[in-house]
Amino acid sequence: MQRKQSSKNSKQPLQVHHSNQTDLSAWRKGGKSDPEKSLQNRPSPNSQVNESKRDSFEQAVSYFEKVQDPVSLRKNEVLQKHLATVESTALEKGLPPEAFDVLLNVALSGKFADAVNTRLLKSLIPASVIPESSLVSSISWLCVSKCSGSIQLLFIRWLIAMFDFIDHKDQLHALYGFFFSFLQDEKMCPYVCHLLYLLTRKESVKPFRIRKLLDLQAKMGMQPHLQALLSLYKHFCPELVSITLPGRMKTYFKNSEGPWKAAISAIRRRNQEKSPVSQPLLLGTAQHQSRKRKWNTQLILPASSASTNNLAEVKDKNSDLYSISESFPVEQLQTFSQLLENIHHLELPSQMGSVLTHPLLLHYMNCIKDESIYLRLHYWMGQTLQEECTWCVVDSSQYEEEFKDFLEIVHKTECFLQEGFSSCEEFLYRSLPFWDGFCCRSQVLRLMTWIPLSSFSEMKSHLYGPLAQLFFTSSLYFKCSVLESLKELLQNWLNWHVIQLNSESDSQGYSLNTTLSGLVNVVAELIHFVGRISTVALRLESNATFLLYFILDFYETVCDIYLRYNLPLLIMPPAGVFYPALLSMDSVSLNQLCYIMYRYRTNLVAAKENELIKKKILQFKFSSQTYQEYNQYLIAMVGCLWTSNAFQKDVHPQGLRLDEEVLKKTGVQDFKNSFNIVYHPALMGYALLFLQQAWPDDNTFNFSLIK
C-alpha cells in the first residue's frame, strides 16, 4: 500500500495539503506576528503557558507520526502523556487541519490497541476544517483491515458527525461505491446508510444499488435507515424504485454525534466569537450559541466547502465562472440575483438546519419543489426536536430558552413557506401527552397552527385527546390561547384549499392524499371538536366574557366557509355556545353573535340558490338539519331581542322555552321583555344613554318611552 511507503518516510515534516491551510508552526503562533513588536513586548505568564501547550502538542503529533512498532498503553508513560496532550488540546481549542493526516492514519493503521485508537478518534475535533485528502488517505486503511470492526464503526460515526467540517467532498463522492460495500455489515449498515444519505447525488443512484437495498430490506425487514436511502433514491429516479415506501418515519438514523457533540458546539462558539471570517457566513440574524446543544450551531452555514481564500478568489474571477459549473456553492450565495442565476445548479449544504435562517434558500425551497430537500430537512428536524425537547429529555430544563428560540425559528420558517413540516406534526403528536402546558407554551401552540392535513382518526388520538385534557385542567388564558391556535389552524387549512382550487388541475391540487370529501370531513371534525370543548369550557369558567370572545371569533371563520373559502361546509355552533352568547351581559359578545348569524344566513341563502338553479358547488349539498338548526336559533334570537316571546316560541331542545308558571315564580314583573333590545342586560346601558340624550331633564328613566 502507498500508506506503508509513506510511513517509512515518517521523519519528514508535516506537509501542507492546501494553500489556504497553515502548517503546525503557523497554527502554533496563532497567526502572523510582527517581529519587532515581539522583541519589544515581553511575553506574559499566560502566553508562556499557551506556548508550552503548543510545544507539547507538536511533540505529541511528531511522536505519533514517527512511531512504528505497536506500543502498550499501560507500560508506556510517553504514550500516555502524548495521548492526554492531544485530548486536552482537542477539547480546549480543536485540532489544526494538518494534524488529522497523522492522527487518522495512526488510529486506523492498527499500530495501537483499540483503547488508544478509540481515544484518538474521539479527540479528533477540528478547530476549523478537515482536509479531504487526510480522509482519503485514512480510508485506504479500511481496505487492508488493519483496524478492528469497532474502530471502523467509530470512524464512520466520526465521519458523519464531522461531515460539515470537511473542506471539499468531491473525492468522498468518488468513494461512494466503496462505502456502499460496507452495507453488508449489519452493525455498520445503519451508519453507512446515514453517510450515503449525505453523499447521495442523482448520479449515485444505480439499478444494482437499488437491488442491493431491496435485498437487504427483504433480509432485515423494514429498517428506517434503508427506507430513508430508498426514499432518496426514489426521488432522484422514481422509475427505478417501484415499491411503495412509508411517507413518514419518526427517526431515520441513529444519532452519531454523541462523543463529539458538546466539544463541537463549544469550539464552534469560540471560533465564531474570535474569527471575523465566519461572520459573513452567518445566515440571517446572529444567534446566541448553545453551550451544549447542537441545533443552534447547525443553523449556521458551515464554511467547509469554500475556504476564506477561495471566497476571495471567487470575487475576483469572472462573473460567469459558475455558468458552466455543475454546482454553485451555497456559501457564496449572497444576493437574490445570484439565486436567480444559479437556481438550477445550486448545491445546498449537507446540514439542512442552516436553511431555516437563510431567506434566499427559503425562496429556493418555495420555487423548486425538490423532495430531497424536504427529506433531508425532515430527518434533521425530527432528530433535533426529539433530542432537544425540554419536557421529554431528562435534565434539559436549563436549555428551555434555547429550545424556545429554535421553535420560534421553525415557526417563522413555516410561516414563510406557508406550510407545515411533517416532522413538527410528529413531534407534537409524540410530545403532547407529556407536555405540562407551561413549557414553551406560545411556541408549541404556534407550531400547532401549521399541522398538515391528516386523517381524523390520527388527529383524534394524537392531538385532540391530549389537548382536551390540558384544555379542561388549565387556566382561562390557556383555554383562550388554544382556541386562538385552533382558529389559525382552521384558517391555514382553508387557505391551502383555496390555493389548490386555483391550481391547474384537481390531481395537482390534492396531491397530499387528501380528497375534497376527506378535507371536508377533517375540517368538520375540527369544528365539532372546538364546539365540544367550548361548551364545557364555558361551564367551567362561568361563561367568562373573555373566553366567549375567542369562541365567537372562531365561529366568525366557520360561518363564512362556504362563500369565502369555497368549501361546501357549514356547521352551526352548539347550543352551549349560542345561548350563553345570546344571554350574555356583554354587548360585544351579543354583537358578534348577531354578525355571525347574519353571515350564516348569507351563506345558507347562497347555497340554497345554487341548489335551485342547479349550480352545485363541487356537487355537495347541505343537509336539511343545518337549515333547521339555523331557523331554531333565529326564532330564539328574534324572540328575545324583538318580539319578546322567546320563552314561549323557542323550539330548540336546549332553548329558552319555559312554562308561564315557572316564569311567574321568578318574581320578575315583566319577564317577557327581559331580553328584548331595550331591556337586555347587554344593551341596557345603550338604552340609558339614549334616554339621557333624548330627554336630558327627565331623571325617571322611563324605558317605555323607547319604541
From TrEMBL:
Position of the signal peptide: none
Listed InterPro entries: CENP-I (IPR012485)
Organism superkingdom: Eukaryota
GO biological process: CENP-A containing chromatin assembly; mitotic sister chromatid segregation
One Pfam family in the UniProt entry: CENP-I
Keyword vocabulary terms for this entry: Centromere, Chromosome, Nucleus
Localization per Swiss-Prot or TrEMBL: Chromosome, Centromere; Nucleus
GO cellular component, one term: inner kinetochore
Compositional bias (Polar residues): 7-24, 40-50
Claim: Nucleus is one of the keywords in the record: yes
Keyword Nucleus assigned: yes
Region entry Disordered, spans: 1-53
PANTHER family recorded: CENTROMERE PROTEIN I
Family: Belongs to the CENP-I/CTF3 family.
Name of the featured protein: CENPI protein
Species annotation: Nothocercus nigrocapillus
Recorded name of the encoding gene: Cenpi
